[in-house]
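Z., the sequence and structure:
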Amino acid sequence: LDHYILSEIVLTKQNYTQPFSESLDLPPQLHYLDFRQSKFSSASLQSLFNLISKHENPLSLSLAQIDLSESFWMQFYDALPTLPTLRCLRELNWSGNKIKAQSMEQFVRYFIKQTPIRYLSIDYIFGISQMDDFKSLLSFIPENKLWGLSIKGNAQFNFSSNFPQFLAAIKAALPIHFLNLDGQLIREEDFPKLIQFLKENECIIGLSCDDIQNKQSDTFFSFYSSLFSTKLRIIGRPMVDIKEIFKENSILKDKL
């Protein structure tokens, strides 16, 4: 296969603890590079960014849920000021990775302030006990920098118990146009707060908020009717909620 036409590379769940060769170059037309759930060392991760820094075309990079020891994380974040700028970076998926409070500013400076990034995914990192860290991270992001932000949650990491404060924290990153809140387990009493937030911040034109807490059909349809009354142009398909609502109907379940 001619590497000059290669545009996507997926290398997930691999062992990359050895540094990448300095003589290595990425395919020139590469636009998507995925290393999610792979194992790295601090040295190999730094060498990866040295490699990516030589790339010229816009790149979407996924390093979600990578395997890195606690000591390697600290070495890596401490080394960020010494690494070359990623001028090709347009999207970064950093989901599931640790970002220590003392490393927030370094993270934002390297991956956001110094790059032309437009979309950031920080899923499964922050929950209610990390609210201060979440606020701190967003406070360092420059205004008008991001077009989209993904903050998916799960049973361990979500802001369901203090959703209004979560929405207030997101305002620090505005204006953005696309927001992914899948898995945040939004409660029924917080639906009006989200609708009001969207009406007050019409810069957000795309929203996904699958996996709400109360999956009763009446609650679900009332909530989405309210979403359709806003200025949103794109609403993510709520597959988790729909499957739960229709799980008793085998015919519909097979089709979903």
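The first helix runs from residue 42 to 52. The chain has a mean pLDDT of 93.

Let me know what you think.
H.
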